[in-house]
Design goal:
It is a single chain. By secondary structure, the protein is an alpha/beta fold. The chain contains 21 helices and 23 strands. It has a nine-stranded mixed β-sheet with strand order 13-12-14-15-23-22-21-18-19, sandwiched between helices. It is globular and about 75 Å long. The C terminus is likely disordered. The structure holds glutamine (GLN). The site of glutamine (GLN) has 10 residues, from strand 19.
């Protein structure tokens, strides 16, 4: 097993995660099997209890792990499936060590950060690195480890110490350190400044780690003399210094690394030269090019609670990008704070109210993502109502499905006070209720989490067709509440159709409005399994419907009903071939540069 450690210096938010994922892609394209570990030095046991406004979305894995969003980057870039143990936090390590201490495993010794915590970190890394994540048997060839935070943070000290010991333990030729740093350009003189990088490398060395490769973030490519200076002062060979300058989309990063022969530098450090295979990156190249040439717009309104930070909905955004690129459409995401759609905002802040409704009314499709707590729920219900009544394509995810059901009960069944017990514990008409297996007192890891099976109830519905007329699908979950099974018959009699249920038939997984162009709600989170080149079927359906192209796709799909249709093939046939692409500008929401 070879290890590539990615650290960050100078400032946070440099795109370390994307850099580490791109290094993984490059190595994969060289013919190696790659796995990944993310270290988050915070004290939380996992990301599950953190607000998305803290560190971005909580990503959910097949095994129910609630983890840092960077694991989503790894899964998407490397097309792998990680486990909860691939995300290490200080909380997890201390919990493990303290449990051992309580059991008496340390045989009377004083339990200390060094060696007990540092040993536990090293054992954890070694153990997890050997778990196969790509569906093949046996461990991967290379494990990419990303250390969160910035060199010098007090929180990460025990990890730095452990990694220093680890690099010595695995020996030269088995460990490669890539340090991602910032080379700012001073606007007055337009000069690329190396001092911050010099300082952060000095900091790294003083902690016992020596960088093999420098990945320098800058607005433009590094000038040769700047590289020379960095090489001399940081004692890193010039050919091991790569520039990660701003690019139009993240799929360009693996290409940028290859262009600068980063794989050769890594292979030299890891003594893998015999195994080097020229990385073709064929799909990556074409995807990145297609992405930059898109010009026909598709406008999706995302009505959520955490719209101030688009990282809060990172996987949703990614899934929308995968699908829009697939359909050769240029995606524009309009982030709408759900509460701005509400009557109270009309009174208190009429401009925001007007702006929110203008965006909603201008959208080709509406998406209500998952969420917790009652802020903005009424706004989400209004968005669902607007989409239903005006026949606008609508996808509701988790809470988005629950609000669609509540809205239907209120507007169509006339049950004015229909609600979820999450928002009104004493609701007289609880259309969404607490699930018995959840917990109201302990928030961490107590939801219905991870991969669960959904069985289609009929073949002749949009969701089943989009998924290729399979009997069942496995998607990831993260919820405490569910549609009240006792009220399902009432809803169905009024025209809602529950087209997907769990194995008991009591838990609703998919709801559709058959007489609507595209109105689907799902209790699971399809965004977590969407991949570039393999978009999630429901997101693809939403974008296709938003572009008025859904009928063709469904017709094609239903021809193969009852058999296992390869959705990807169906979609590929329908991609309009374009030769002349227009504008090169690239905008979606507020995401630019490396942080996608
Ligand atoms: N708050 C809702 C529940 O717990 C929805 C959760 C979600 O959207 N992830 O069921």
């Amino acid at each position: 097993m070879k290890y590539v450690l990615v650290t960050g210096g100078v400032v946070s938010g440099l795109g370390k995660g994307v850099t580490a994922s791109s290094v993984g892609v490059l190595l994969q394209e060289c013919g190696l099997r790659v796995t990944a570990i993310k270290i988050d030095p915070y004290l939380n046991t996992d990301a599950g209890t953190m607000s998305p406004l803290e560190h971005g979305e909580v990503f959910v894995l097949d095994d129910g792990g609630e983890v840092d969003l960077d694991l989503g980057n790894y899964e998407r870039f490397l097309d792998i499936k990680l486990t909860r143990d691939n995300n290490i936090t200080t909380g997890k390590i201390y919990q493990y060590v303290l449990e051992k201490e309580r059991k008496g495993d340390y045989l009377g010794k004083t339990v200390q950060v060094v060696p007990h915590i540092t040993d536990a970190i090293q054992e954890w890394i070694e153990r997890v690195a050997h778990i196969p994540v790509d569906g093949k048997s046996g461990p991967a060839d290379v494990c990419v480890i990303e250390l969160g935070g910035t060199i010098g943070d007090i929180e990460s000290m025990s990890f730095i110490e452990a990694l220093g010991q680890f690099s010595y333990r695995v020996g030269a030729g088995n460990f490669c350190l890539i340090h991602v740093s910032l080379v700012p350009v001073l606007s007055v003189v337009g000069e690329q400044k190396t001092k911050p990088t010099q300082h952060s490398v000095r900091g790294l060395r003083s902690l016992g780690l020596t960088p093999d490769i420098l990945a320098c973030r800058s607005t433009t490519a590094l000038e040769e003399n700047v590289k020379g200076k960095l090489s001399q002062f940081c004692q890193v060979p010039a050919e091991n210094i790569v520039t990660l300058h701003d690019v139009s989309n993240i799929w360009q990063i693996p290409l940028l690394l290859r262009e600068q022969r980063a794989h050769e530098a890594i292979f030299k450090v890891l003594k893998l030269n015999g195994r080097a295979q020229e990385p073709s990156l064929k799909e990556w190249t074409s995807r990145a090019d297609v992405h930059d040439k898109l010009h026909e717009p598709v406008r999706i309104a995302v009505v959520g609670k955490y719209t101030d930070l688009s990282d809060s909905y990172l996987s949703v955004l990614k899934a929308l990008v995968h699908s829009s690129v697939h359909w050769r459409k240029k995606l524009f995401v309009d982030w709408i704070p759900a509460s701005d759609l509400e009557e109270a905002t009309k009174r208190e802040n009429p401009d925001s109210f007007k702006a929110a409704w203008k965006l909603l009314k201008g959208a080709d499709g509406v998406l209500v993502p998952g969420g917790f707590g009652d802020r903005g729920v009424e706004g989400k219900i209004l968005a669902a109502k607007y989409s239903r009544e005006n026949r606008i394509p609508f996808l509701g995810i988790c809470l988005g499905m629950q609000v669609a059901v509540i809205e239907f009960a209120r507007s169509v069944l006339g049950v004015q006070d229909a609600n979820s017990t999450e928002f009104d514990p004493n609701a007289k008409n609880p259309y969404v209720i607490f699930m018995p297996e959840g917990s109201t007192t302990h928030m961490g890891g107590t939801m219905r989490l991870g991969s669960r099976r959904t069985y289609f109830q009929v073949n002749d519905c949009k969701s089943a067709k989009l998924y290729g007329c399979k009997k069942f699908i496995d998607e990831r979950h993260r919820h405490r509440y569910e549609v009240n099974p006792d009220l399902v018959a009432k809803l169905e009699n009024a025209g809602l159709s529950f087209t997907g249920k769990d194995e008991t038939g009591r838990r609703m997984e998919i709801v559709e409005l058959p007489n609507h162009p595209f109105y689907i709600g799902v209790q699971f989170h399809p965004e977590f399994k969407s991949r570039p080149g393999k978009p999630s079927p429901l997101f693809s359906g939403l974008i296709a419907a938003a572009c008025g192209q859904l009928d063709g796709v469904l017709q094609e799909a239903s021809k193969g009903a009852g058999t296992e249709i390869c959705t990807a093939r169906v979609f590929q046939n329908k991609i309009p071939k374009k030769s002349a692409f227009g504008s090169r500008d690239y905008v979606y929401g507020s995401c630019n540069g490396l942080r996608f």
